[in-house]
Design goal:
globular; 231 residues; alpha/beta; 8 strands; six-stranded mixed beta sheet
């Protein structure tokens, strides 16, 4: 079992990293057009995107009690995770898979997903990557996967080098170099900056979400995932 302190810095360093990440990277994110999200309806408002009214969103919204129950298990080091209010369908979120080919959340149907958006210029993102890798190593299965999507602009050289340098072994290499994925999530009212993490059930419904880093290799995170996988 992974030791949380091995993978994650002290709280004061997390705060410092978060401030540094905002100063260094937030501008790079927020200068992009908020309306260029992937698969987001043209001209839609955040409220419309979050409650689109389609049959998938209606089906997800019916899971409000389930979302609250799962989010209630988010305590301690993952207590910042909030229940989806209301749960919405994230089936259309798009990015490239480890083989470089386009895919969406639908391609992971039947599997609970912890979707994390990160960038190499984001200090708190860098800090939590080993912990996400440790969570995937221990809890990854046919029923659960940590999907960490890199959103750096440009080619793959820098993010791949970073992952290699810090010894990431279990996380698949997911990618979106266009910022469309981040903008889509931001349009839905789920992202303030990076990192942002979303817990998504096997039917593509958002269960809970978090802005900022967390200790994903610790016992609190593991209990959360167990609660998400429980019948």
């Amino acid at each position: 079992m992974a030791d949380g302190n091995r993978y994650f810095p002290a709280p004061r360093l997390i705060l410092a990293a978060l401030v540094a990440g905002v100063l260094a990277g937030a501008v790079a994110v927020y200068v992009s057009e908020s309306g260029s999200g992937n698969n987001a309806a043209s001209g839609s408002t955040p409220a419309q995107a979050a409650t689109g009214g389609g049959k998938d969103d209606v089906a997800c919204a019916a899971k409000s009690d389930r979302a609250k129950k799962v989010a209630a298990a988010a305590t301690g080091q993952v207590a910042a995770l909030l229940p989806a209010d209301p749960p919405q369908s994230l089936k259309s979120l798009a990015f490239n898979g480890p083989d470089g080919k386009p895919m969406t959340i639908v391609d992971h149907a039947g599997k609970t997903v912890l979707l994390n958006l990160w960038a190499t210029w984001c200090a708190p993102c860098r800090a939590e990557m080993p912990a996400l890798d440790a969570l995937q190593k221990e809890k990854g299965s046919d029923a659960f996967e940590v999907i960490a999507v890199n959103v750096d602009a440009g080619d793959d050289v820098k993010p791949k080098k970073f992952l290699g340098d810090i010894g990431i072994e279990k996380l698949g290499y997911y990618r979106d170099s266009t910022l469309a994925l981040f903008n889509d999530v931001k349009t839905r009212g789920l992202a303030l900056g990076l990192p942002v993490t979303m817990l998504i059930d096997g039917e593509g419904c958002l269960v809970a979400h978090m802005n900022g880093p967390a200790e994903w290799s610790g016992p609190d995170a593991k209990r959360l995932i167990e609660a998400a996988l429980a019948p």
